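Internal ticket - ligand job 254, 2'-O-acetyl adenosine-5-diphosphoribose:
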Amino acid sequence: MATPILIEDVESHASDWSAIADRIRGSKNVTVLTGAGVSAESGLPTFRACGLWEEYRFEDVATPEAFARDPELVWRFYNYRRAMAMSAQPNDAHRAIAKLESSMTVPFTLITQNVDGLHHAAGSREILELHGNLRRVRCTGCKKTETTEEKLSELPRCECGALLRPDIVWFGEALTAATLLKAQAAAARGGVMLVVGTSAVVHPAAGLIEIGRVRGAFLIEVNPAETEATHLAHAVFRGPASRMVPALVERVTA
Ligand code: OAD
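stdout (structure tokens):
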């Protein structure tokens, strides 16, 4: 494969910036896939490389087996994450993605692996949340889901008496089929795919990038580090999302 266009700052590479902006403007379809890196500058830790999974073993706090074994420990972890997410504010990258969506006249799909709700807070309208949402709880008995930003007890229960759990996709669990199918359909439309702040190691989310690539998408990655998706990219913005994404969206919407 040809070497991707590599852009490391917003000041230089003017012709590359405008060529990429033109690709987005002229595309018949735009899909954005985000990961924890888009929220890093909102103060939320990522998962790998000095992130949450360095501090906690996911087997202890983010699997159905962990919840069956020690629901209090799992809830302690999720109450901590809920508190962090709810006190965080969207950053310029979230806002730029929302602006891109509202400027689009062709199909636009935002797919996120994040559970923090910050895309919603930034004004994005249609969001496919692959891994659930920290603000939602689900009853393990009657299966009812509810969105709540209130502080929850250490072992919250539903009105029906059964334990509530976070409405999050844990390791070893399947993604919601309808959400995954919509995400795969968007990726399969080709066009342009913008991949922001993900290490691209968790499947099936990472597989969406391959689907896009196979279906001829022009693939743009925004990430300060090299990832599993970098070798698939046509253009790489090597820098923080809050700087690179707004600079790109400004050029697309100018
Ligand atoms: P990771 O923690 O695996 O990767 C975060 C990515 O963000 C890395 O590639 C970083 O280089 C990049 N990054 C860091 N700071 C950034 C910044 N300021 N701007 C842009 N990028 C930045 O997180 P994810 O790829 O999202 O799943 O992880 C995927 C899934 O694994 C998560 O949804 C979660 C986790 O286990 C579940 O919990 C089900």
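Auto-summary: The first helix runs from residue 14 to 25. Strands lie at 5-7, 30-34, 108-112, 127-129, 132-139, 145-147, 164-168, 192-196, 218-222, 235-237.
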